[in-house]
Task: inverse folding
């Protein structure tokens, strides 16, 4: 037998070596050959190969209705491997399950023994004995190897059946060695992520706003509010790519020619358009590999399966409305095994066009703006709004009042969703993240909608982080440090003990949450954005209230503006400005820590549970939200 890296692991960063076994194998043992390769930021994704038929090749193993990639362990045989462990908090992780073809009366009771010893030592220690039986659940395995950090050890597994009256086999799924953070030895926390589509920061932050958001305010009281968070894109799909990877949209385009080609051809929508490169891993994938149950639901049809946003999810449900999501997602979460940590993702759409008329909220905002309440339409969409300066002021004010009413509605729905999820919560700690993917222009710069510029009304988004109950973190803090939506990927990785590479343009916010002194690089940081949906691609840099923007349709001109002056241009463009901008941009963009050349060798992505829509339905849904096939935009 030998251990080797999966094709997926071969495209990831960081080099380690699996040392070959020395000495002869013991009785009923399977020897190990030497293997070398690359890891996912320190986590070996190990694949079993042997001449034993039950261990040849990857299999789809069903434990109840939960089908995963796994290997069937030979009955009674010791399978072992010598591993050079990383020097910091190494952990063996995987899942065990029993599969049987017998009638349901078979309990399939088995026992799996995990053994460990230092290489060269004749003394073998039984570290953990795990009972498993046939049923509907895989059993997570987490073995702390910290006492052997930095050493070469022999790991062994032996499965023995305790049932003589039926035929059952033990399966081992997703075995790997993880080099974790200082959080990895603690109970893995649940992660709840709510993304509110098209939510402007100025409607939810600050003392002088007119929009009433009691549930967002409660998040501020319970946790930490980041007042200066920037998205990486002015539309949803590329923002979510950054959310799950920490990568800037332009970095993904440089990484994958197909991504760049989709941008050049304006093939962004629908589902056969822009996709996350397959060589780039995601946080949901990493959590799923670590034993998390990952459940997601969304109401924005720009996030269909197959574009990469669903990668790593056990289920990825498109639901027709926010109320439908709020009702069905908690019920789905309640059905999952709470003995496993869970990541729950919800993407709400209420503040996106069309803006619906909601009397309980809209009427107050119409009154505040002195707008007539007669002959009010049920909703407003792009085809009813004129984005030019010729649009009457009253019509602009009416649309803004509709939008503000939608913000108040989505605030109530976020509160309802969190309350419903609380009823499904386990005793394990949980972190709650609530963020917007991007904002919305309401004639701030003579336009309306999103995806067409990189102005502040589209990039400045609210971010709330609520720590677990009983946390020592001081709640009710508003932080002024400039941060990015892309920072959530390394933040979640650190909080969950998931090893994650250093991605240019993203950093963990855990020090901010803990109130630790930040290094000068974090305090004096330059933020980036590059994702847009309509028209020419753009780049933007933000530093200390100064913003530089470049359109790739006219790259010689770099616009310099100040946020405090509504982004009014404050300096003329020059060759020096352009050269300095592009030098700084390339420095910050850097190189992604993955290898694109091996992406074609990756296996096909597995299908996930979800509600699929055909292309015609999807196109109709997108058009109803104001997206147009021509992609010319507002």
Result:
């Amino acid at each position: 037998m030998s251990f080797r890296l999966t094709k997926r692991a071969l495209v990831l960063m960081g080099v380690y070596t699996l040392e070959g076994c020395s000495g002869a194998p013991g009785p009923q043992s399977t020897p190990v050959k030497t293997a070398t390769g690359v890891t996912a930021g320190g986590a070996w994704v190990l694949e079993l190969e042997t001449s034993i038929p039950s261990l040849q090749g990857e299999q789809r193993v069903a434990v109840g209705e939960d089908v995963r990639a796994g290997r069937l362990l030979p009955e009674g045989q010791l399978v072992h491997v010598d591993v050079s462990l990383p020097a910091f908090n190494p952990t063996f992780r995987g899942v065990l399950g029993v599969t049987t073809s017998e009638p349901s009366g078979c309990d399939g009771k088995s026992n799996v023994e995990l053994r460990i010893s230092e290489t060269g030592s004749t003394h073998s220690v039984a570290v953990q004995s795990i009972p498993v039986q046939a049923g509907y659940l895989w059993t997570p395995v987490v073995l702390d190897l910290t006492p052997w950090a930095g050493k070469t050890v022999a790991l062994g597994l032996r499965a023995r059946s305790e049932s003589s009256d039926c035929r059952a086999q033990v399966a081992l799924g997703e075995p790997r060695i993880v080099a974790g953070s200082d959080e990895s030895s603690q109970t893995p926390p649940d992660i709840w992520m709510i993304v509110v589509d098209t939510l402007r920061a100025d409607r939810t932050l600050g003392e002088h706003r007119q929009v009433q958001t009691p549930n967002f305010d409660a998040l501020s009281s319970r946790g930490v509010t980041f007042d200066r968070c920037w998205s990486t894109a002015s539309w949803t799909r590329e923002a979510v790519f950054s959310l799950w990877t920490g990568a800037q949209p332009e970095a993904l385009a440089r990484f994958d020619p197909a991504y760049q080609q989709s941008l050049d051809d304006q093939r962004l929508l629908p589902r056969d358009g822009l996709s996350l490169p397959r060589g780039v891993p995601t946080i949901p994938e990493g959590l799923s590999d670590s034993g998390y149950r990952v459940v997601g639901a969304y109401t924005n049809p720009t996030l269909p399966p197959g574009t990469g946003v669903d990668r790593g999810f056990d289920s990825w449900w498109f639901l027709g409305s926010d109320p439908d999501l709020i009702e069905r997602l908690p019920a789905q979460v309640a059905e999952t095994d709470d003995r496993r940590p869970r990541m729950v993702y919800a993407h709400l759409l209420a503040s996106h066009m069309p803006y619906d008329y909601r009397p309980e909220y809209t009427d107050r905002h119409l009154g505040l703006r002195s707008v007539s309440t007669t002959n009010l339409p049920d909703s407003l969409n792009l085809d009813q709004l004129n984005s030019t300066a010729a649009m009457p002021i009253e019509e602009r004010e009416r649309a803004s009042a509709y939008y503000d009413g939608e913000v108040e509605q989505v605030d109530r729905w976020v509160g309802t969703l969190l309350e419903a999820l609380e009823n499904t919560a386990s005793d394990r700690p949980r972190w709650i993240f609530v963020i917007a993917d991007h904002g919305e222009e309401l004639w701030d710069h003579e336009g309306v909608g999103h995806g067409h510029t990189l102005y502040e009304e589209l990039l400045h988004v609210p971010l709330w982080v609520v720590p677990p109950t009983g946390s020592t973190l001081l709640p009710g803090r508003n932080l002024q440090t400039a941060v990015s939506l892309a920072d959530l990927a390394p933040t979640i990785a650190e909080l969950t003990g998931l090893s994650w590479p250093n991605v240019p343009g993203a950093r963990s916010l855990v020090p901010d949450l803990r109130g630790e002194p930040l290094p000068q690089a974090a305090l004096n940081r330059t933020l980036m954005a590059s994702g847009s949906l309509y028209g020419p691609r753009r780049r933007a840099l933000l530093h200390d209230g100064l913003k530089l923007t470049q359109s790739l349709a006219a790259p010689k001109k770099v616009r310099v503006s100040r946020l405090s002056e509504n982004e009014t241009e404050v300096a003329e463009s020059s060759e020096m400005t352009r050269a300095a901008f592009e030098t700084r941009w390339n420095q910050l963009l850097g190189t992604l820590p993955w290898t694109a050349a091996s992406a074609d060798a990756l296996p096909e992505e597995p299908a996930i549970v979800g509600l699929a829509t055909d292309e015609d339905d999807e196109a109709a849904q997108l058009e109803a939200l104001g997206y147009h096939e021509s992609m010319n935009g507002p």
